[in-house]
Amino acid sequence: MPYVSGSANSFADLLTALRNACTTNGWTLSGTVLHKGTCYVDVLRETAPFNLAPADSHLSVRAGNGIDGSNNLTDPAPRRAWLGLLRAVAPDNTFPDWSWPVTYHIHVLTDPDEVWLWVNYNTDFWQWLAFGQSPAGGNAGTGNWHAASICERGPSSGSNTTRINQCRVGADGVADRGGGNEAQFCPQPFFLFHTSASTYSHPNYAIHGALDDSTGAPIWSSGDRHFADGGVGGGYSPHTVNASRALVPLYSRSPNQWNSEAPLLPVQVIQTRLSNKVSLIGEFRHSRLTRNKFITPGQVVPLGADEWKVYPVYRRNAAVTGDVGSGTLGAGADHSGTFAIAIRYDGA
What we know:
Distance between the termini: 7 Å
Mean pLDDT: 82
Oligomer: single chain
Largest sheet: 7 strands, antiparallel
Number of helices: 3
Radius of gyration: 19 Å
Order of helices and strands: EHEEEEEEEEEEEEEEHEHEEEEE
Strand content: 25-35%
Low-confidence stretches: 154-160, 224-236
Strand order of the largest sheet: 1-9-10-11-12-14-15
């Protein structure tokens, strides 16, 4: 399971490092699309990013299910996810640059395929971009997925989902829609519970294999719309998926008060269905969600015969859990509390 680290002086360098790591380890690059087997993902440097951001200030990722004769992604996910500069809080509305060079960490994992790019910048800040093919048993889709730190902004110019000082998680530990639990910037993978129809953040992830409640056909997860109470799925989009709701009770009890250890929690992607039922449509094998209250960024944690490298999802703050109550990450938090991701690691 190859692991590559190094330094980069630009987003172009980061993209080159990611492509090289993938193509050296079984992936093929066709145009801007990386593909392996039936997994396809478009990763590129954005020359004209969203919402007036400077040129070449982001990498974006979008999974699909094929390529055409011109190497364009076919059957793509509804929206991209991003890694890059964050917009400052209004009325400034600038995009402060990183202090280059930055350090990157790339994991290229197999069986099933998962690729993770981690970037450490400005001393203690982190962002990430990931993709792969991780269906759960019985998923009728491809299981192709992508995720990254930054979600695409909502359609309203008054609500930008990439503002710095806005790492916000709801009172129950997950990123929720508008109201008291709005997620301005939530860099957790598969953590949005549902979203508003207009002004709030779209998910920073997508997976193929969500089920169309009308036809039963496998489709891309969406999460673009919030239905009124009493609507489909008990008020939530039928295509919204998340890995957070089932983990909230475990997250809230981690790290263990007896021995201060934090379990590595599996990423299981669940879709809300009609009649308050759920379906398991994705299951990752090489990544886990955890707490890093007592784990330093980049620390390697042994678990049986395996080792896991732990990264903060944005910026570690061991004093704030991101839990229910006083530990909740509020609107002004320029950190991600103790939310972290562990990646399977063998140092090679």
